[in-house]
Amino acid sequence: MRPFLLTAALLAAACSRAPEGDGDARLAAAAEGAAADGPFDFSTPEAALALDGDAVARRLGSFESVVAVEWTVALSGEEAPRVRAVERHRVRQSATGEFDVSAEVDPGLGPGSQTGRDVIFARGMTYGRARGAPWRERPTDRGRDAHRYRDESFRIPLSVARLFGGALAVAPAGDATVLGRPARRFLLSLARDAAAPAPAPRPAGAPEPDEDTRRRLRFLDGRVPASASGELLLDAATGAPLRVKLSGAFAVKDDPRARATVELLAQVRALGGEVAAVAPPPGALPDERKAAGVAGALDAAGLRKREEAKPARGEPADEPEE
After folding, report:
1. 3-class DSSP state for residue 217?
2. Mean pLDDT of the 196-224 span
3. In whole angstroms, what is the distance from residue 127 CA to residue 143 CA?
4. Rounded distance, CA 171 to CA 185, Å?
5. Which residues contact 311 (CB under 8 A, 6 or more apart)?
6. Please, which residues have CB within 8 angstroms of residue 128's CB and are 6 or more apart in sequence?
7. 30 and 147 within one domain
8. Are residues 187 and 298 in the same domain?
9. Is residue 146 within 8 Å of 121, Cβ to Cβ?
10. Residues 146, 118: contact at Cβ < 8 Å?
């Protein structure tokens, strides 16, 4: 049972890869219109969750936002195991297009299991580091993966909402004020008689998944939204998301003992001149294709020139995505 719990809890680190559900088509269509920078259609407020950092910066100017997500997965019964996973994200986005992203994930596996990454995109260069590692330049990225990492963090509310699919209801609930800006408030709840999200179709010819992946898919495909509550606050002038709070729970179709709960809070905490400028990290190291020890061994063996004469192979980020 514990491997199932651990795998389900690790959805916290991978919720941005949640399968498409029955509510995605409506959300995608609404989001396409929202991303066009025209007047926001408040009749589909959930479309604001699909806006990326650039689209929100065009609407609000420079901003800084934080996201915290907590997953708890447990089995019912006496002395049943329980796993808690937590992730925290921060996005600092400049109106000029530069940004700084940090992410920390604690999968609940004890000391030493925490992971994290920091990414900066400034002056046309990507800089990155893993938790505890030095900053390095990533010149071959050209901002592609940097933008992907940023949006994986910034759009976590969208990822969690997608897990509910059409079972997440959104209703207007009056006006509010966030950071001194007028906002429109919407309540989030579980839709009455909502059907369970449909499993994502498997690509034709896809290889058989490994056991860990099968556990995760069993949860994703068998998830049944059991509860949902929260609120969504959108900027009244532009429709940009200013605050999202969502609490929910999922049952699992083939295992009535299993239950997963999620607590999400995402909010913009600074705007305009209160947001510090984004700059390259001081002391960033150059990008290294080979470890220094490998290069030294090649030199000693007289193979360095032969190796350098071969066509350069780019990083995985340079290769086309399947």
Report:
1. helix
2. 78
3. 9
4. 9
5. none
6. 117, 118, 119, 120, 135, 136, 138, 141, 146
7. yes
8. no
9. yes
10. no
Mean pLDDT of the chain: 83
What pTM value is reported for the model? 0.80
DSSP helix/strand/coil, 179: coil
pLDDT digits (tens, 9 = 90+) for 164-208: 988 999 999 999 999 999 999 999 999 987 666 666 677 777 788
Do residues 318 and 261 share a domain?
A: no
Domain tally for the chain?
2
Which residue stretches of 89-234 are H helix? 144-154, 156-164, 211-222
The tokens describing 245, both together, are 């709070």
Structure-derived torsion over alpha carbons of residues 314, 315, 317, 322, reported in degrees to the nearest 10: 70
Assess whether 307 and 169 both reside in one domain: no
- Does residue 182 share a domain with residue 261? yes
Within this chain, do residues 188 and 321 fall inside the same structural domain, yes or no?
Answer: no
The residue count for the chain: 322
Supply the range of the domain harboring residue 310.
Answer: 294-322
Same structural domain for residues 250 and 139? yes
Check whether residue 309 and residue 275 sit in a common domain.
no
